[in-house]
């Protein structure tokens, strides 16, 4: 994933931000990446263009937190119930924090996790047990209607 500086306009209002997604994805692909993650003006990883980053470190999985209103955008948190019982947390993550991670993946409500091998210039270790655990948790979570 490329890392690009961008903050969603009106972050408290749920919207897709198509202009930024299209523009920054094209830049990422032109630079040899499959996707991109947005970094805010404070250097915090806040969201992915299409899929949300999940991070492994410190004994559990988590999602990056950012944004001026203290929220995370479109975050699908892996379920803490079921056979996986993944300890979870939400925390600020900057690009300088990436080398300390034990792995990373991207996910959304339709897809439980795909391993990420690199964010910006930082290579990340593969974490197949983390991805497998998220898939098991996803499969054990019942579907619900809105």
Description:
The structure is a single chain. With 146 residues, the chain is of the alpha+beta class. A hairpin with a 2-residue loop joins strand 4 (52-57) and strand 5. It has a single domain, classed as D-amino Acid Aminotransferase, subunit A, domain 2 (D-amino Acid Aminotransferase, Chain A, domain 2, Alpha-Beta Barrel), CATH 3.20.10. The longest helix has 13 residues, at 18-30. The chain is built from two helices and ten strands. The strands form three sheets. The protein has a five-stranded mixed beta sheet, with helices on one face.
Write out key terms for the chains shown.
146 residues, alpha+beta, D-amino Acid Aminotransferase, Chain A, domain 2, five-stranded mixed sheet, 2 helices
Overview in brief:
With 146 residues, the chain is α+β, with helices and mostly antiparallel strands. The protein is 18% helix and 29% strand. The chain is globular and about 35 Å long.
């Amino acid at each position: 994933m490329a890392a690009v500086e961008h903050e969603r306009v009106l972050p408290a209002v749920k919207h897709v931000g198509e202009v930024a997604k299209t523009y920054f994805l094209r830049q990422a692909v032109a630079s040899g990446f499959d996707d991109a993650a947005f970094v805010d003006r404070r250097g915090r990883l806040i969201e992915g263009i299409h899929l949300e980053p999940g991070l492994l470190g410190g004994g559990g999985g988590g999602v990056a937190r950012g944004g001026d209103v203290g929220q995370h955008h479109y975050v699908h948190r892996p379920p803490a119930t079921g056979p996986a019982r993944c300890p979870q947390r939400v925390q600020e993550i900057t690009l300088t924090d990436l080398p300390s991670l034990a792995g990373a993946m991207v996910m959304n409500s339709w897809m439980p996790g795909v391993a990420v091998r690199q964010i910006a210039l930082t290579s990340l270790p593969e974490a197949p047990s983390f991805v497998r655990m998220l898939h098991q948790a996803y499969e054990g979570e019942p579907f619900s209607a809105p």
